[in-house]
Specification:
about 280 residues; mainly beta; four-stranded antiparallel β-sheet; 26 strands; about 50% strand
C-alpha cells in the first residue's frame, strides 16, 4: 500500500472519522479537533485536550471524548457534556469509542488522568468499559481494562473488539441481545514492544489495528485471531485509523510523528485498501 501524506505538523493525532461528504475529522492531543475538507483545507473546530475518540452524530455534529463524553453541535459550535460522572465521581478521562446500530456509544473510561499521571510510579490504575445511551444513561459493562483504547464491532454486531494497550493485546467480548457484554478474552496478543491502539473493522470481519511505539505499522487480524498482514507506515508511532470514501476503501491512518518531513510531527496519511471498511453508525445524541 502506498500512503499519501495529507497533512502534518501536529502533536499526537487521534480519533479519525470520515463523513458522507468526505470530510475527515481528527484530534490533536493538546489543541483540539480539526476537519480536513476534500479540497485539503484544514479547519480548527474547537479546543479540547486529549480527545481520544470521535464519532459522527446525527444532524452534522460530533461526539468526542476527553474529560467527559460531549456532543459538539456543528451549526451552533457548542459543546455539551453528556457523561461526565460515574458512581458519584468525576471521570478521570475517556478514550476511544464506537457506536452500535441503535446509536448507543461504547466508550473506554481511563483509570487515571492522563494530564497528571507519572509513568515512573508504575502501572496505572485500570479503567473500564461503558455503554452510554442517547438518553444519557450510562451503564458500566466491564471493569479492569488496563488502558482502554481502540474499539469496534464485528459486521454482525455479535462481537466487540477492544485494544487494551498495556496488556499488549486486542480483546474480544460477546455482545448480548440487551447490549451487555460477556466472556472477555484475548483475541490477538502482540509482542512486548508493540502497543495496540486504534481499531477499524472491514466488511470481511478483519480487525485493523494501529501499532503505537512498535515498528510503525498497521496490522490486519483475521476473524480467527491470526495476523494476515503487516503494513509499514511512514511513522514510528501510529495511533489510529479509519475507513472512508464513497466505497469505504480509503484507509486513513493518523500518527504522533512521521519519517517524511524534517520536523517529524504528527500526521495524517491515506492509502487505498483492497477490502472495504465497515461503516460505523452515527450516534443519536
Amino acid at each position: 500500500m502506498e500512503f499519501e501524506l495529507l497533512t502534518q505538523g501536529y502533536g499526537l493525532v487521534e480519533g479519525p472519522r470520515v463523513d458522507a461528504q468526505g470530510r475527515l475529522f481528527f484530534s490533536c492531543s493538546r489543541t483540539g479537533v480539526y476537519r480536513r475538507d476534500p479540497d485539503g483545507a484544514i479547519s480548527h473546530l474547537f479546543e479540547r485536550p486529549w480527545v481520544g475518540g470521535i464519532a459522527l452524530n446525527r444532524g452534522g455534529g460530533l461526539l468526542v471524548t476527553g474529560g467527559a463524553l460531549a456532543v459538539w453541535d456543528g451549526p451552533n459550535r457548542t459543546l455539551r457534556d453528556v457523561f461526565a460522572q460515574a458512581e458519584g465521581k468525576p471521570l478521570p478521562g475517556l478514550n476511544d469509542l464506537t457506536v452500535d446500530d441503535a446509536g448507543n456509544v461504547f466508550v473506554g473510561v481511563m483509570g487515571f488522568d492522563i494530564n497528571v499521571f507519572d509513568p515512573s510510579q508504575g502501572k496505572p490504575p485500570p479503567g473500564s468499559l461503558y455503554r452510554v445511551s442517547p438518553s444519557g444513561e450510562a451503564v458500566k459493562l466491564w471493569d479492569n481494562v488496563m488502558v482502554p483504547n481502540g474499539i469496534g464491532f464485528s459486521p454482525d454486531g455479535a462481537l466487540l473488539y477492544q485494544s487494551d494497550t498495556m496488556t499488549h493485546a486486542v480483546w474480544v467480548y460477546d455482545v448480548t441481545p440487551d447490549k451487555m457484554v460477556r466472556d472477555r478474552r484475548v483475541f490477538c496478543r502482540f509482542a512486548d514492544d508493540e502497543l495496540p491502539d486504534g481499531i477499524a473493522i472491514d466488511i470481511e470481519g478483519g480487525v485493523w489495528v494501529a501499532v503505537a511505539r512498535g515498528k510503525g505499522e498497521v496490522v490486519r487480524i483475521r476473524p480467527d485471531g491470526a495476523i494476515d498482514r503487516r503494513i509499514k507506515i511512514p511513522s514510528n508511532f501510529v495511533t489510529s485509523l479509519t475507513f472512508g470514501g464513497a466505497d469505504l476503501t480509503e484507509l486513513y491512518v493518523v500518527t504522533a510523528d512521521n519519517t517524511i518531513t524534517e520536523d517529524g510531527k504528527g500526521a495524517v496519511f491515506r492509502a487505498r485498501a483492497d477490502v472495504p471498511g465497515l461503516l460505523t453508525p452515527e450516534a443519536q445524541f
